[in-house]
Amino acid sequence: MPKRSLMILARLSLIVITIILFYYTIQYTFNYIYPFLIACLFTIMINPSVHLLESKLKLPRSIATISVMGVVGVTSFSFFAFIIMELIQGTTYLAEMIPKHIHTFTNSIEHLIQTVILPVYHNIISIFHTLSPSQQLTIQENLQELLSQSAAMGGEFLQNLLMGLPSMISIVPNSFAVIIFILLATFFMTNDWENIKHMISRFIPEVFFKEIHPIFTKLKQSLIGYMKAQLFLVTLSTITIIIGLLILQVDHAITIALLAGIADILPFIGTGIIFIPWIIYLFITANHSLSIGITILYMFVVIQRQILEPKVVSNHIGLNPLIALIGLFVGYQLWGIGGLILTPILLVMISAVYQTGILNTLWQFIKG
Prior knowledge:
- By secondary structure, the chain is an all-alpha fold.
- It is about 90% helix and about 0% strand.
- It has a domain at about 205-368.
């Protein structure tokens, strides 16, 4: 093999090994370092405000840091306290009303079975008896296989859900300690931001820093822009749903809208996880006026998001929708429901890295 080919292969192997080592390092250390990664993100977000107070009001760095963190903390706490109180009141009301709705839904299903499904069933049975024995046996086997697969899928889903509940509950006590670590790390990082930058620059070669700085800048712009875009879209959807439900005179409209806003974070699923079962229930229970109103509201929210999302988000992602869909499916297969939230962020990061031209730099390095 020529010497040049060996050099290319060696450089390619070095890059592949580096990526693999980086992946496994993050995978096995993430549970130990994620509070500090979150603190670093918070530091990047609040550092401009801290610097503004420090330069304009001549406040000491520590006082400026505490002031900004205090304002952000009080605002966030008040907002989440309002949401939690509204959710508690709304879910309490729903818990009282759900048995009544289930009873109504059961009666409606029973009426539907007697008036629609049974006549159709009898007609199918009459046709079924006219078939040959081999055809009847084939149909029975296919139906049994379909029912077995459906039962297995349902059982697996419930099993995974129940097995996941203990781990979800165990997160709650640890979350308070994690929050304390995040707050402390955010304060120390923000307060010593210049010293940290100077210390990092001493260990990173200047050439490497020049290459990595544009990537970091683009990555920060893309992530912040993507988060702002999603926050804008979710807030707009929530406000639209609140207004629509108030017009339709639905009880606890704010609670339902907040739940729908949380669901709207999930790509491709969104508010449909709440509205579609609700519309089906209203249709079966013969509440046609409200079912039409909720359907129109749901269609308006979906169309509104479909019109605005490409304009608001595409500037920050810059990915083909098919690639994004493939990425979401892969993320769901790897990380489950959490992958639907994590994958768009990873796609934004990959897009930012691609747009900085680092891939071309790596290719030039491989070619020598």
